[in-house]
């Protein structure tokens, strides 16, 4: 599958040369920077590979490709991408700034779970915009999930979360996905609201996952916007969306190393089936090519 974030095009020239030379290293560095690995990670990858090439006294670009693949895979696999969803119900809070693909992700995630035989209910705890609730309802339905809507516009988000979990417990639903607000007047208002949702939910049951949705096309900027969530929301996993429209495959590694939080899901399209788990081995195969 050709992906826009694959490095295989950028690396082609490099691996078709007969021997590893200065140009090889320049090309590698350019390719990594262009793919948004960031300068620190690029420097450390290049330094590590130079050391390996020296240690194994190789001049074969194919060896370098293998080493690059191993390095990236090893670094991506340092954090565990497994979702913890064994509690019943397993409550997942979905957080992130507006426009990153939160609603779509909840629908796709519901589909991902119902396809695997789990029952899902979505809680519309972003209660301010009626249109947003309706959009979420459409995606929940596509994903095969039921939905708990606010009883009136602007209902306290924590009470919607409460009602959703109560219903899940009553109806024996496996997984609860709570959609939270992405935009309020102030950051502290947003974080207070989220803290209240968490407090109320934790009285009912443990929170299984707090997933932060990030738009891969915005790269480092998007990360800066999401900083408050990373600092205050107790995020347990990242969901990268819009990777299909991004040339920034390196963001995947840089976001994980910068935040210390594992990527758990990846969105690569606008369709209901376009969300997958994150598998470093597969990702790196696609990134490096062949
Ligand atoms: N290409 C692509 N588009 C995506 C992906 N995920 C979401 N989108 C698109 O991104 C846009 C925003 O998605 P939403 O799910 O509405 O985002 P949101 O964060 O809920 O936005 P608000 O409702 O405004 O808060 C939509 O046009 C989606 O189709 C993805 O993985 N790939």
TrEMBL record:
One of its GO terms (cellular component) is plasma membrane. Residues 89-289 form the SRP54-type proteins GTP-binding domain. Residues 88-244 form the AAA+ ATPase domain. It is found in: Cell membrane; Cytoplasm. Its EC number is 3.6.5.4. GTP binds at residues 96-103, 179-183, 241-244. InterPro entries: AAA+_ATPase, P-loop_NTPase, Signal_recog_particl_SRP54_hlx, SR_rcpt_FtsY, SRP/SRP_N, SRP54_GTPase_dom, SRP54_N_sf. The keyword Membrane applies. GO terms for molecular function: GTP binding; GTPase activity; signal recognition particle binding. It catalyses: GTP + H2O = GDP + phosphate + H(+). This is Signal recognition particle receptor FtsY.
